[in-house]
Amino acid sequence: MAICPPARAAADSTGPPPSSFHYLQYGIAFAAETVASGGDVCPSVTAPCILGSGFGPAIRIGYRSRGNWYVGGAYEFSRQNPASLLRLAILQQLRSEARYYLLVGRRLAPYATGAVGGVLYGNEWGAETGGIGLSLGGGFEYQLSESTLVGAALVYRALVLRGWTDSAGERRADRFLGFGLAHLVALEVSWELRRLLPRW
């Protein structure tokens, strides 16, 4: 019977776990969001855009399967730049997320990701408007240890918001049956932990 050399055995003990395991995976991320286009949320060329770039944290939890999939949920809030039209503009997102890992059993694992959920936007945690958020993107995660991962992702977000009138009397997001579309690009850096789930 072949015996692994000590160096090889040590490397295997710190390497990625076999794909026959499944996990509870949770953590925190920080996202910097840039408005690629204000779209129908900023229809006027003369009035300031009420939805600008922002930054904030996200908390997520989900299930990492034995294969290529991760499914879970996330709550993110970010402070946006409202061009002085709001005192403290907060964009809140509650979404369901999925990742498809292109490589399994590797320390460095690229993935494609998508999400759908609800969004709220308003002043000081209020809700002046709300709607649906859709996301598509890609990223990677790197396994620091058996239970700790770091990662980054670049994601396109489409926000479909209900029309409203802002404090300056400007009508926003009121183009398609009372809704409008805005486009964001987010860069996200994450820190996540895994907890091994019992076999079933």
Strand line-up across the major sheet: 1-2-3-4-5-6-7-10
Mean model confidence by pLDDT: 89
Q: In which range does the helix fraction lie?
A: under 10%
> What is the CATH class name?
Mainly Beta
Order of helices and strands: HEEEEEEEEEE
Structural domain tally: 1
Outline: elongated
Low-pLDDT stretches are 1-14
Number of strands: 10
CATH topology: Porin
User: How much of the polypeptide forms β-strand, as a percent range?
Assistant: over 45%
The SS-based structural class is mainly beta
The value of Rg in angstroms is: 21 Å
What is the name of the CATH architecture? Beta Barrel
Q: In DSSP terms, counting alpha (H) and pi (I) runs of 4 or more, how many helices?
A: 1
- Mind describing the biggest β-sheet? 8 strands, antiparallel, barrel
Q: What distance lies between the first and last C-alpha atoms, to the nearest angstrom?
A: 31 Å
Chain-wise SSE layout:
Blueprint: H1 6-14, E1 23-37, E2 54-64, E3 69-80, E4 89-101, E5 108-123, E6 129-143, E7 148-162, E8 164-165, E9 171-172, E10 179-196
Characterization of this structure:
With 200 residues, this protein is mostly beta strands. It has a single domain, classed as Porin. The strands form two sheets. Strands 1-2-3-4-5-6-7-10 form an eight-stranded antiparallel barrel. The protein has a two-stranded antiparallel sheet with strand order 8-9. Strand 5 and strand 6 form a beta hairpin. It is elongated. The N terminus is likely disordered.
